[in-house]
Amino acid sequence: MQSHAGLSFGFAPNATCTPPVREWATQSRACMDVPVSNASRISSDFHGKGGIMSGIHEKQYKIRSQRFCQQALNESTSGGSVNRKDDVSRGALIWRAIKLPIYSVALVPLTVGAAAAYLQTGVFSAKRYFTLLISSVLIITWLNLSNDVYDFDTGADKNKKESVVNLLGSRSGAFIAAYNCLIVGFVGVTWTSVSSGSIRANLLLTWAIICGYIYQCPPFRLSYQGLGEPLCFAAFGPFASTAFYLLLRMTSGPHYFQLTATVLSVSLLIGFTTTLILFCSHFHQVEEDKAVGKISPLVRLGTKRGAILVKVAIVTLYSLLVAFGISGALPVTCILLSALTLPMGIKVVRFVEENHNVRALNLLDKGRIFMAKYYCVRLHALLGAALTAGLVLARTVTTGYVPKPIFS
């Protein structure tokens, strides 16, 4: 006879499950196989003298058994899983839909660009910085909302409970909100560009927005062809980071375009880590992408080779840092502070290696790989903070560093 903690109705529990989940899973299987009308016979096995159910009235137990079996049947037929994913609270779903950590992709390029401008000129415009920050957040909101809208159209988000469209119950509401954010954000960027006299910066940001549009919006939807990562790299790296540098370096002196090796280096690094976030966001939805014909890089490569590529990417990232330091493209302060982020880079690699194979994991651990992109967000934010601090210190402490112009 099984103990009460492991009520299994004669079914062997799965050793990989925790007791509560093991109890739920085994009882659910029992209820699928045994008619509810037999609950009385099942309960009689537990009512012998000294039995574990002694002292509980048989009628009460029968009622409870019927309720539990009906619940198990309902969850089984409605797609309920052992990890109780359907039980996520609405508050948690709203938090996931907001994707607050993802807004680091708006903050980091702007802040690093501002630090590169400060290194060059020793001037920081708080008014321009916060205007651009608000505008950038609105544009990223457009990206997130419109992505949910168009993925809803293709069916990619059919079972995604944290989709904004599913939460609102209105595709048109999410669509209107998305494009209102884009319009207001673009107006803010344009106003800053005009007031600073930097039309080139506005063109670069326009190209960054175009990359976002053709990435996910019809009729292009290049993300469905596996081209999202190159577009992401260009948009958040060379385009956005360089544009923010140009907008924030403008002074009362002559307005001219000057691109330095420092700006190019930091824009490549920021583009690299932003792209890594996007790449790792595919790990938990490979099967869903396949079902709707979305050929993401991980659909093409598989998660095993994808995990290897993540390791190669991290090695490449820190190799670039060393190369930029040796060549003098970045000040030594940036290299030293950025080296402190290496443990986070190693953590990204190990996490993906241990959790990428969703099919091999039991149902309890299946959702763990979802967190891969958030580990990449941490790396992105930490590296951005290190580069920003390094550039500011190069100006204020080690005043001997002079950025090398590429062309002007």
UniProtKB/TrEMBL annotation:
Membrane disposition: Multi-pass membrane protein
Signal peptide range in chain numbering: none
Keyword terms of this UniProt record: Membrane, Transferase, Transmembrane, Transmembrane helix
Keyword Cell membrane: no
Main location: membrane
Transmembrane segments annotated in the record for this chain: 100-120, 126-145, 165-191, 227-247, 259-280, 374-394
Subcellular location: Membrane
Pfam families listed in its UniProt record: UbiA (PF01040)
Listed name of the protein: Uncharacterized protein
